Fold each of these.
Amino acid sequence: MAYSNPMLAEIDPVWAQITDEARAAVVDEPLLGGLIHGSVLHHDKLETALAFRFSQKLASAEMSEQILREIADSAYASDLGLGEAARADIVAVFDRDPACERFIQPVLFFKGFQAIQAYRIGHWLWTQGRKDLSYFVQMRISEAFGVDIHPAARIGKGIMIDHAHSIVIGETAVVGDNVSMLHSVTLGGTGKEHDDRHPKIENGVLIGAGAKVLGNITVGHCSRIAAGSVVLEPVPPMKTVAGVPAKIVGEAGCAQPSISMDQLLGRSS
């Protein structure tokens, strides 16, 4: 791909590709010109574009766009890892979702990506001790995107949540890097305990649609959880589990299931 700004492409290839795609999209669909200019082309870096998108999507009568924009700008300025994680998430969605043909699509249209970026700001607020405001962000994410992630949960980078409807991730859950999950996944507890009570998902795990992982258990790296499964016991690394309750049914089938996105049981690659 020939970038319109080779210097920017060298410094920040993800943002360079998004801006080039934005210019092409305005030509192809002028009716989206206002959205694309406001969300992408009026900004000089990805972080400010994401802060703007955050404020647009989560604003309500209870909290204005201006206040939310100031919160997001502060988060991105304070924690450079937020921008790094967003770039990894964009690449993850592009690589793993066959419906994603351009880097700009998650930024503008994909609620899974947008919900994760909003969660990251809520988590930053949580780490700053601003818990009530982080709860407000959690509430608005749930209302706007149908995704409920507790701001205390810890989520890595390179995350792809496909479709993203009805995702629930509890307070003490931990999700590693390069994890993929589909809609209606729950990482939940098993009762009313107050301590460490939610799952630990290691790097490279693929979680199928509708799967429920419950309790303070570990799902080992590069494992697969079949769609509709209920996981109540720890899962060793690089295994496939399926069923209610879930049992080991074989190996993971490949070195990186979260990247291959192969969800067919009994098939190896």
Amino acid sequence: MKMVMAVIKPFKLDDVREALLAIGVEGMTVTEVRGYGRQRGQSDKGSADGAKAEAAPTLLSKVKIEVAIADGLEDKVIKAISKAANTGRIGDGKIFVYDLSHTVRIRTGEKDEAAL
């Protein structure tokens, strides 16, 4: 099993949710977060003469999506999120995939892939 976490622009959430539903992803967790990446929250990397600005990082509002999936689905999920979240501009976000060792559905006691 895998956990796929994506940090995206908030206005792309509905597009990503619909894309994941279309490929059969049944559940997700969404969290409003703030942060910055390589651009440090700025819209461009430097000034017109190429010098890097030394401004303090700006925390930008983002949405974090987490989906637990069966092994073998990560490429399909990554493609769906990437396509739906892409604006072609700086700050579109990132996708992280990590191993999920164990899952338990609290209500039924189902485990691992049966609990997804």
Amino acid sequence: MFTGIIEEIGKVAFIKNTGDAYQLSILAKKVVSDIQLGDSIAVNGVCLTAASLSSNGFTADVMPETLKATNMGKLKPGSSVNLERAIAAGGRFGGHFVSGHVDGTGKIIRKQQLGNAVQYEIGTSEEMMEGLIVKGSVAVDGTSLTVFEVSQGSFTLSLIPHTLTGTILGEKECGDPVNIESDMIGKYVGHFIKGMKCSNKTSISEAFLQENGFM
């Protein structure tokens, strides 16, 4: 489990791709300071397992399914990546519940400076849009953010200077792909509501949840 608060920007050292296997070697300092083999690290929001460790980085294997569902296949040596260790019990929880199981990808279609912040509009599929609401949480490349606006086929975020410099999102430009994980709690609630509708149980509805502050 992660929080979406990026701890460090790492660099891809090399990529081993043999067709049957895809392995990333990532240069990092902070996230390898107290982890063990087999621990989880979120790389651009994708939960990966540390397969080997050194004082200046780690390697992780990436499954073919992960390559299809995320932007990991776009990485190359020298690429910057957002890194976060799994949250420790009793640690500060500054973002939101992030599982590291990316739902899909989107593409930056607009980037605009507004005062001290930068607005990003991200286009994505209709299926992905179903999990996004205004003022709801979303993880973009593993970064916990608040949805500022939702429109047909896209959503808007507003990034403060700290997020722009402390994550790779500040380096992103229009056309760049990003990993998206919608709010975990929202997904469970949505799944539960759909199940209630399918079974004709109407005691809990979207209207009921909204009226009582759950949505």
